Backbone:
């Protein structure tokens, strides 16, 4: 399927690996030029080099997107579109696992800043330009935990749920939605990424079970009986960013192999 977005510019956060890289790859395959952001320069450059072989422009910003300085570097990167992105995929590393009794104000502020306020700042910086040009797609990578919370991910549960509430309102602003600008959330379940392994390591320390045992048990919780692949996630993201998805906005799209048991 031709997604109708060839030649557009996309900002992708956390793009050096995992789900962010899956999104960047799918967009590049659709002919989209990229600004890829991640804190780790070596992994980021290696991933960008691979995507450049697809014939698109790929710029890299090795910065922390959760900081003002990091976002300023994105807007000023040489050869980039400034703030005139057509597509924005927000994605920042999740906060650490643990027991809520051990978290103080500093831990909560850091989690909210990274996983709620940073996406909001990226939306604020780009959405009006999208509306003025008559096209925009914003996709926030959040977590299935906003529908089915995980006890050791309390920081993530709280911060990402706050973003979900904000998007529910912002996406339905008529000055945005009527201008062919959509804002949606992608809620990944268990995907084969480094983040999932870190979660298992946290559970292992808490329960005494091995990472391998926890991994096999988690697989069985989903009717699909496996973990997702980042490419599957990326292709869903690319569709939401396409010309064909203009009537989908304010939605929370769960991708978890059927693990969530609810009807709604």
Residues:
């Amino acid at each position: 399927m031709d997604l109708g977005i060839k030649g557009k510019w996309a900002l992708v956060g956390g793009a050096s690996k995992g789900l962010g890289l899956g999104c960047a790859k799918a967009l590049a395959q659709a002919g989209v030029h990229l600004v890829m952001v991640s804190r780790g320069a070596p992994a980021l450059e290696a991933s960008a080099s691979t995507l450049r072989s697809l014939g698109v422009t790929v710029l890299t910003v090795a910065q922390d997107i959760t900081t003002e300085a990091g976002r300023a570097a994105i807007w000023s990167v040489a050869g980039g579109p400034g703030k005139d992105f057509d597509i924005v995929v927000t994605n920042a590393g999740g906060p650490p696992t643990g027991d809520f009794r051990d978290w103080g104000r500093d831990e909560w502020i850091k989690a909210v800043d990274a996983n709620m306020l940073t996406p909001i700042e990226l939306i604020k910086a780009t959405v009006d330009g999208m509306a003025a040009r008559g096209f925009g797609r914003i996709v926030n990578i959040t977590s299935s935990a906003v529908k089915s919370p995980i006890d050791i991910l309390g920081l993530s549960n709280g911060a990402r749920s706050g973003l979900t509430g904000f998007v529910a309102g912002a996406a339905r602003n008529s000055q945005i939605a009527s201008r062919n600008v959509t804002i949606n959330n992608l809620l990944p379940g268990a995907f084969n990424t480094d983040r999932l392994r870190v979660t298992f390591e946290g559970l292992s320390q808490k329960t005494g079970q091995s990472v391998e045992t926890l991994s096999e048990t988690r697989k069985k919780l989903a009717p699909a009986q496996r973990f997702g692949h980042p490419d599957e996630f990326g292709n869903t993201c690319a569709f939401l960013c396409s010309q064909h998805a203009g009537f989908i906005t304010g939605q929370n799209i769960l991708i978890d192999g059927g693990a969530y048991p609810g009807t709604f």
Remarks:
- The chain has a mean pLDDT of 95.
- The two ends are 29 Å apart (CA to CA).
